[in-house]
Amino acid sequence: MAETPNTPQGNITLPSDAQNKIECDKQFYRIESQTKLDLRTNPRYKNFFEKYSAQSVERFIDYYAREKASCLCFGDMYVEEEDNLRQRFIDIAKERLWDIQQKKLFNLQCQWRAEQVELPGIELSMDFGFADDKIELCPFIPPITEQELEMYKQFLVDADDPLSEYILGWQHYDWWKHEMQKDSENDSYPEWYHFYDVRFGTQGLINLPDIRGDKEHFYYHLAIKDELERRQKTLPSLLPHDPRPELRPYDQKTIDTFVHLFEPPHIVKYYTADNKIFSKTRRYLGEDLADALQVIYNYKARVPVEAYHDWREGLYFAWQDFERQQIIASLDKVYQEYCHEYQQKQNITGLQNYLKTMESRQYEMRLILRGRVLNGEPEDLSF
What's the sign of the alpha-carbon dihedral 137, 140, 145, 147? Predict the structure, then answer.
């Protein structure tokens, strides 16, 4: 026979969340019953109910009692959820407001690399990549103006995909310069950068020479070459040179070829299905669409959906339009907060302290300084 748990009177102690659920259900049914009794017996409702058929009144009473119980039991949660949804767009607007500063920082990076300007706290080209994450600590970027804010709002209205995330980072100079120098129009240079350049006439900055970057590259590789030569003198060559190409595990075509060559048909089928589901071009079929539906439903928003050959695409694009409208509506409030807090955050010491914590930065600086010495120059960054 199973032993009775060692609790008073043999009762099982339920987890706190289960106890709370039971108490909540009790409260719900108590309110529902009390409301039904009140609606059926209180004379204050008599004149209202007499206008309608008795059967429909009973249905109304049942429905209204459940709704009232739900409001009283979960009302605080509903209000909090609605506030969270509003806060969602405010939080996104706060993040996207810094897009303005990211473009201005990128322009300054182009000028710094061309040795046209000096920026306090910036010593290496890679510092701009770190400043991307802490852009609010960069005191040398002029503050956001109302003109720039209005222009950014217009960008959100006009652009095809204004809320794209740039995984490489806003300050990835080498990549963005490479994209701008493509002959085709299919570059991935940020839409926002294009928009800003056209309106402020800053298209030419990215074509400035990378004088500083070339110097760093020279010293860096001089130190790397010296390090490799010293290692070759002290260590035997463990691996002979292999002239064959590298097998790249992240190359999609390589993986496709391998799967079709070596896997049985059922795994090929699974693999193909997996790629279709998670294809970037069909992202709206997954979490993005589910997220859009949940937010629209909870926000009680009326979102117009245009006719489309695939209803899922139409719904997803409708959600994108709704999201950008809410962000635009939140930008004014966010901008006022920015203006109030701007002076408090502008501290060059904060940026310098942050940069000092970056191990990869310290490593690159040591190599550049070593390259300077090898080239018969002072061990400093004055070049």
Answer: negative
Mean pLDDT on 286-313: 73
Q: Tell me how far the alpha carbon of residue 144 is from its chain's centroid.
A: 21
The tally of CA atoms less than 13 A away on the side-chain side of residue 135 is 26
Task: Find the radius of gyration of the CA atoms of the chain.
Answer: 31
Q: What span, in angstroms and rounded, lies between the C-alpha atoms of 353 and 12?
A: 56
285 residue type, one letter: L
Tell me the percentage of the chain whose pLDDT exceeds 90.
Answer: 38
Q: What is the DSSP string of 12-26?
A: PPPPHHHHHHHHHHH
Which residue in 292, 298, 294, 303 sits closest to 325, CA to CA?
303
- Locate 341 and state its tokens: 């807090």
Q: How far is CA 333 from the centre of its chain?
A: 20
The residue count for the chain = 383
Half-sphere exposure of 93 (CA within 13 A, CB side): 24
Q: What is the pTM of this model?
A: 0.66
- 112, 381 Cβ separation under 8 angstroms: no
Give me the long-range contacts of 371-379 (CB less than 8 A, separation at least 24). Answer: 371/218, 371/219, 371/220, 371/221, 371/222, 371/223, 372/219, 374/222, 374/223, 374/226, 375/218, 375/219, 375/222
